[in-house]
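User: I'm writing a short report section on ligand binding and want a predicted complex to refer to. Could you take this sequence and zinc ion and write out the structure as tokens? A short remark afterwards would be nice.
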Amino acid sequence: MKCFFCHRDIESVVMVIFEGFAHKTCAIKAGRYCEKHDVPKTSFQENTCHACIRCIDEDVVNLELQDRSCVKFLEENLPRPEFNALMRWAEVISRITHSEPETSVLRGLVTRAHYTNKKVSEVLTELAFAQSITKLIPPDLQEIVDDHYRGLMALKAPFN
Ligand SMILES: [Zn+2]
Ligand SMILES: [Zn+2]
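Assistant: Sure. The structure tokens for the complex follow:
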């Protein structure tokens, strides 16, 4: 069995990553392994970016405690249809994760911040500058989410 990064044989210490197996040290060097949590990072953007889910979890909790103004910032700085699309996405995600829609927005922001190596404030600026949530939620995903959302609303109001 060969290491994905150094192509040398792997004997004892192995870890599973998207592409196969690697030495832990090689994966750490390649930025694909979180030393703090001792887990492989998760792939994003079709395996071009990587981030540790547990680091993201921690940052979401911290952000919830420290700064809850992110959603308000987006509400004030995005065109209304874009903000509404964001909140529909957050509502659908929240049904799956059993959390508040606001937390889903924070999680989306923190996740992008991690895999692009930016600060959350930079991600917010990026979205406001683009006047679009496409960087956070790709259009094809928005379509899928909107289908789910219509389904949810139909359940909520069966007599409408
Ligand atoms: Zn290696
Ligand atoms: Zn981590």
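A remark for your report: The chain has a mean pLDDT of 89. Residues 53-156 form one domain.
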